[in-house]
């Protein structure tokens, strides 16, 4: 099954928005990646 069966279309749209913002602002992605080294996720 695809992920769309587990998430609402609104959620999928928000994830797509987040991906777009991260693509347009690489520093955000770098900061997020750096923060993962400080947490045990």
TrEMBL record:
Gene3D superfamilies: Iron dependent repressor, metal binding and dimerisation domain. It comes from the Bacteria. InterPro entries: Fe_dep_repressor_sf (IPR036421). One of its GO terms (molecular function) is protein dimerization activity. This is Transcriptional regulator MntR. It comes from Lysinibacillus xylanilyticus.
